[in-house]
Design goal:
There is one protein chain. By secondary structure, the protein is an alpha/beta fold. The strands form two sheets. Strands 7, 8, 9, 10, 11, 12, 13 and 14 form an eight-stranded mixed β-sheet that branches. A six-stranded mixed β-sheet has the order 1-2-3-4-5-6, covered by helices on one side. It has one domain: Purple Acid Phosphatase, chain A, domain 2, CATH 3.60.21. The protein is built from eight helices and 14 strands. Helix 2 packs parallel to helix 3. Bound molecules: manganese (II) ion. The site of manganese (II) ion (MN) has 8 residues, from loops. The site of manganese (II) ion has 8 residues, from loops.
């Protein structure tokens, strides 16, 4: 069972044996990137840590999974990241038995920043209970498509609202989209240059040994409140549409995920409508 921890950007996956806390997109050190452009914001890392500690105290998970993008710089790490990231994880280690990081696109060379016993999982993802978890910038492994529910981060989903006077605000949201596991497996097979044989259902079994079952995809809001993003309800006529498509990653770009009719929920659980409906107010 999967439950969002309203009103936080976090979820709990419960199985018979364990409770796993899942968060995505910490982007520790985004303030440092700003300071290089002359804007000085004090470090926000202690606040992120406190928010996460409180969630651990309240929900008592045995396991914490971070769905990618622990740090903000992509390939390297700045001086403060060398200090802040190990400290952050050393504190968390005192609160929760097991911690895993699924590698995101910002997690290049993260190994030396993580203390002992923090496990790094590949960007192809991991399965917890009946949920397939992956970051989203790359394809998940075929094994994840056997799960009914997929969950990813990476896009930092927000919805924009504009009133008639032109004032605009953006709010973080959860996205729930229908997806077609067989189609996803088909696209993945094509990517691996394998031909779809007589039946689209049987080919994944033959090549990957799986029966695709994924029917819904959740996109998690970023745990870091400050991250910007291109609103998901921006109209397609926008000149930046192509860039937007590229950033979303291969799964959302594939026709197997119905983003038009995807449902958007505010962090407090309020249902806003589908992305298609919301495109009129962006
Ligand atoms: Mn990412």
């Amino acid at each position: 069972m999967i439950a969002p921890l309203i009103p936080y950007q976090a979820a709990i996956i419960k199985t018979r044996k364990t409770r796993t806390l899942v968060i995505a997109d910490l982007h520790i050190g985004w303030e440092i990137a700003l300071s290089q452009r002359g804007i000085h914001v004090p470090t926000q890392t202690p606040k992120l840590l406190q928010k996460l500690k409180n969630l651990i105290l309240t929900n008592k998970p045995e396991k914490l999974i971070i769905l990618g993008d622990v740090k903000h710089t992509i390939a390297t790490a700045g001086i403060s990241e060398w200090q802040e990231i190990p400290e952050f994880f050393n504190e968390l280690k005192k609160q929760v038995k097991e911690i895993c990081v699924i590698r995101g696109n910002h997690d290049g060379n993260i190994e030396p920043l993580l203390p002992e016993k923090i496990r790094i999982l590949p960007s192809t993802g991991a399965t917890v209970g009946e949920v397939g978890l992956f970051h989203g910038h790359r394809w998940p492994s075929p094994a994840l498509l056997e799960q009914k529910t997929l969950m990813m981060g990476h896009v930092h989903p927000v919805v924009a609202f504009r009133d008639p006077a032109g004032f605009r605000i953006a709010r973080q949201v959860w996205i729930r989209a229908k997806c077609d596991g067989t189609k996803l497996a088909g696209t993945l097979l094509q990517k691996h240059k394998m031909k779809i044989e007589k039946s689209a259902e049987k080919t994944p079994w033959k090549h990957y040994g799986i029966k695709p079952k994924s029917s819904q995809l959740f996109i998690m809001p970023s745990f870091n409140d400050f991250l910007g993003s291109r609103p998901l309800n921006r109209r397609k006529t926008d000149g930046a549409a192509e860039t937007g498509r590229r950033i979303r990653g291969p799964v959302l770009r594939s026709e197997a995920v119905d983003m038009e009719n995807a449902e958007a929920y505010l962090l407090d659980g309020t249902f806003l409508g589908t992305l298609n409906q919301l495109s009129t107010i962006s």
